[in-house]
Write the structure tokens for this entry.
Amino acid sequence: MIRSIYLAVVSLTLTVASVLAAQPPAGQSEFKPLSEVPPSEQLPGGAFVVVAYAFIWIATMVYVWFVWKRLRKVEDEMRALQRGSPEIKRQ
Amino acid sequence: MKPMRKLLLPLLVVTAAMFAVAPILIARAPYESTMLMVQKIFYFHVPSWIAMYSALAVCGVASAVYLFKGSRQADRVAVAAAELAVLFGLFGLVSGSLWGRKAWGVWWQWDARLTTALLLELILCAYLFLRKYGGPGSEKLAAGVALFGMADAVIVYKSVEWWRTVHPVTTVVTTLIPEMYGPLLFCSIAFMLLFGVLLTARVALENRRGELDDLYLAIEDRR
């Protein structure tokens, strides 16, 4: 067990060290004001924003329905079990 | 969890109201210089990942508690949080892909941030599959997978610093002007509330399942 942990720690240390050794140049790190950018480089994308937001709303609603459906199933099963077993009902 | 369940309805109302107000705040936020409209995906892309990391942290800590203390309640919290981590991760991946289509001209890039994020999502899916199809005793194995997922989260977060990626670095958030930072904070709180509401509901489901299992065991014992 201790040997496995020791091996895992050594492997992780070596991996992290090799990753840190290869430092990339910095990426985009700040927002620029609109006035500095030519119109040809600007990207409108209203439909994409609406689709992304709608996806999150719809997926959340589907998930809530899915949880509720599973909860109903468990409740129904519990009721059926309690009806079928009087001794369980008393607990 | 019982006090949380009492708070569920008010929390749900507040969360729904915040999600209804969020598009107005996002629409009023100033445009970013190069992205213009599509940059506004950022206001729910980043909060999705914040909620995802929170869910993953809850899952990881609960899994560790289950592994070392054997707490069944911790195991229930872990499985509930894992499912939510997958959900919020999916939000992040889809919204990021939509943003990427406009910003980079492609739906997907196999760059370090995106690939590690996808791997994290797959690790969490593996956790859920293990729980569903792993059979008796798979809970402990799944808890181990959750700890790997938590370790991967660190790699995902730091990937933009460790490797050359096309993804913006995380320090972009600190350079936001107040008019942009306000809506981002608002959306982040809304997503965290949503996470809290969904976690409470999902843990309630796991608790009921636990009670059902106990009922079956009690019936078996009497036979």
Notes: The mean pLDDT of chain B is 89. Chain B has six helices and no strands. Residues 178-222 of chain B form the longest helix (45 residues).
